[in-house]
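Listing 4. Sequential folding, example run.
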Amino acid sequence: MDGLAWKVLLLLCLTAAGTWAQDLGQTQFICTSVPKDVDLCAASMQSSGPAEDLKSTVLQLRETVLQQKETIINQKETIRELTSKLTRCESQSFPAGPGGRRPGSKNTMGDLSRGTAETLAQLGHTLQTLKQRLENLEHYSRGNNTVQANSLKDLLQNKIDDMEKQVLSRVNTLEESKSGSRNDSEQRNRVESTLTSLHHRITDLEKGKDRPADKFQLTFPLRTNYMYAKAKRSLPEMYSLTVCLWIKSNASPGVGTPFSYAVPGQANELVLIEWGNNPMEFLINDKVAKLPFLINDGKWHHLCITWTTRDGMWEAFQDGVMRGNGENLAPYHPIKPEGVLVLGQEQDILGGGFDATQAFVGELANLNIWNRKLSITEIYNLATCNSKAPTGNVFSWTESSIEIFGGATKWSFEPCRSAN
C-alpha cells in the first residue's frame, strides 16, 4: 500500500473516531486497509457496520424510552381526571338504602340512571294519567251538577298544577347536580305526599260512581321506590295456599315484584318476582321455585300458584292452564302471620326497604289469597270469569282492603272484558 492510501485511511479512522467518541463516549476503533481502487465511502460504510448498528440501537432505545415516558405522563393525567370526576359523582350521589336479598342501588325519583329527561317523561305520564281521571270526574260532576264535586275538582286541578311545578323543579335540580342527600329526601317526601293526596282525593270522587268494590285495577307506570299499595291486614298462619291475580306488563328487563309478604325476621316470606333477566320466581321463606310463566307481552294474563307445606308441592297456572309444578319449596314451613303484604314492591325489611330496580311496572287486579289449595276447576273458573269462581278467604280484592301510596293509580276493571 503506497503512502497516499495510508494517509487517506488514517484520516478516515480519525474522523470516525472523533464523531463516534462524541456520541458514544469512550469507544475502541479498528482501522482496516482497503485496496487502492475501492470506493472509500463504500469502504467506510462496510468498515463501520458493527458500530453503526450499535448506534442505531441506542437511538431506537432512547426514542422508545421517551415515548414510554410520554405515555406514562398521559396516563397519569387521565387517571387524575377520572378520579376527579368520580369524586364529584360520589359527592352528588344519593345515599344507598338498606341491603336486601338481591343487589341493586336505591333510587328515589325512579330509575335515575336512565337520565333526567326520561325521568321527567315518566313522571309526566303519571301526571297525565291523573289529569285524565280528573277529566272523567269532571264529566261525571256535570251530570250530577253538585257544588261539592266542582269544588273538589278545582282543588285537584290546583294540586296537579303544583305537582307539575315540583317535578320541573326536581328535574332542574338533578341536572344541575347540586342537591344533597337531605334536600333530596325532603323533595322526595313532598312529591310522594302530593301524589298520595291526589290519589286519595280522586278516589273519593270516584266512589260516587257506585263502582263495585272489586272491579278495579292498580297501575304502576314507572319504576320507583315509593309507588306501592299495602294490605290493611296481615295474612294468617297457613299450611297451604293459593294466590291468584290478573297481571299486565311489558316492562324490560323483568316486570318486577307484583307482591311481597314480609314477616318479622324474614323479608321474603312470600314473594312473586321477575327481576332482571331471571325467570319469574315464587319465594317462600326465601326458598325459590322458578315459574314457567311468559307474560311480558303487554296483554292481560291470569296467574295462579298453589302450594302445600307437605313436601313443598307447588303448581303454576297461566290463563287457566297448568304450566308447571314441583316440590321441595320450603317443605314443612308454615306461612307465618303478623306480616305486611305489599303490592308493587319487594321488601328488604318489614314494610319497607324498597328498591326501584325491583319495583313492578304494569297493571294488577283481582289479587286473591286462600289458605287452601284450589282445584283445577276453580282456577279455570277464575281465569274465565265464571260466576262460580271463589273469592279469597284470607285476602280478597276489594277497595276497602288496601291502601295506595306514592301515586299508583286506580281504574275500573272488568277482568275478562279487559283481557280480550
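-- end of first protein; second protein begins --
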Amino acid sequence: MLTGARILAEILKRDGTGVQRDAECRAVSGRWVSVYDDKTFTSASDLDIDHMVPLANAWRSGASQWTQEKRKAFANDLTHPQLLAVSAASNRSKGDQGPDEWQPPSKPYWCTYARAWVSVKATYELSVTEAEKNTLTEMLGTCSS
C-alpha cells in the first residue's frame, strides 16, 4: 500500500498536466484545474486532495462498522472516484458535508460529482440520507445523457 506522500504524488500527477516531480516524487511544477470551481493552478501548494465522500460522512454512513484495514483502503482509494486534487478553498468550504449541504460552485461539474458520489457510496455500501438522495437526484438531472 502506498504511503500518504506517495498517494498525494500520484493524485497530483494523475489530475495535472505537464507535471514535473523531484527526486522524492513531489510535484514541483504542472497545471491543475480544480473541477469543483473551474480554477486553474500552477502550484501544487494551492491544492488539497479531497475525499469525494468525506471520511466523517463515510463514518456516519456505515464506515464506523468497518475494520481498520477497510477504513484505510477507503481513505486511500485510487481505483474509484474517491480522491481528487481540487482548490484548497473549495475543499475547505466542502468540509465533511454531503451534497445536500454543499455542491461544487461549478454547476457543469454537478453531473460528474453526483455520479462519483453515488459510485463511491454504492461501492462501499454506505447509506444515503433522504436529503442526500433528493439533492443527488437534482444534480443528476443536470446530466445530458
